[in-house]
Write a structure and sequence with these properties.
There is one protein chain. α2 runs antiparallel to α5 and α4 packs antiparallel against α5. The protein contains 5 helices and no strands. The protein is mainly alpha-helical and about 140 residues long. Helices cover about 90% and strands about 0% of the residues. The radius of gyration is 25 Å and the shape is extended. It folds into 2 domains: about 35 residues; about 100 residues, Up-down Bundle (Four Helix Bundle (Hemerythrin (Met), subunit A)).
């Protein structure tokens, strides 16, 4: 019976020691990742700016097509897709576009506002989408 009591104490202690070691390994891996943040951030920005901007431009193209055909319900849906991609690509676009970032955000807000109107103005929306496309394209080259 004495050995059983020793095991009752030893098993939980061993378990917690193993869990603690595993957490130390994870902390070491996280530290290694943080140790070289510049390289990680640069590669992440290039990846997001390259892939994300392509998705953004695709969504803008689809939104333009819907607006040109007068189908504002589809245009709203396509621009919602744009906003979904924007959430993940925004940081990369900001880094890649530099001083054009403010203009990009302004165009996005303008398109959102224009699409919410009860009678959307086709010309204004197309103009805002054109501005958005023009300012996003340089971000694809970075």
């Amino acid at each position: 019976m004495r050995h059983f009591h020793k095991l009752l104490v030893l098993v939980p202690v061993s378990f917690f020691a193993l869990v603690g070691c595993q957490q130390a390994e994870q902390a070491t891996k996280q530290t290694e990742t943080v140790a070289n943040p510049a390289a990680d951030v640069t590669s992440a920005v290039k990846k997001v700016a390259g892939e994300g901007v392509g998705g953004l431009l695709d969504a803008v193209t689809k939104t333009k097509a819907a607006v040109k055909s007068g189908d504002f319900a589809t245009a709203k849906k396509e621009f919602t897709a744009f906003e979904g991609v924007w959430k993940t690509a925004q940081a990369g676009v900001k880094a890649a576009s530099g001083d054009k970032y403010g203009t990009i955000v302004k165009s996005i807000d303008e398109v959102k506002g224009l699409l919410k109107e009860s009678k959307p103005n086709q010309e204004k929306i197309l103009s805002a989408l054109q501005s958005l496309t023009k300012n996003l394209k340089p971000a694809t080259k970075s």
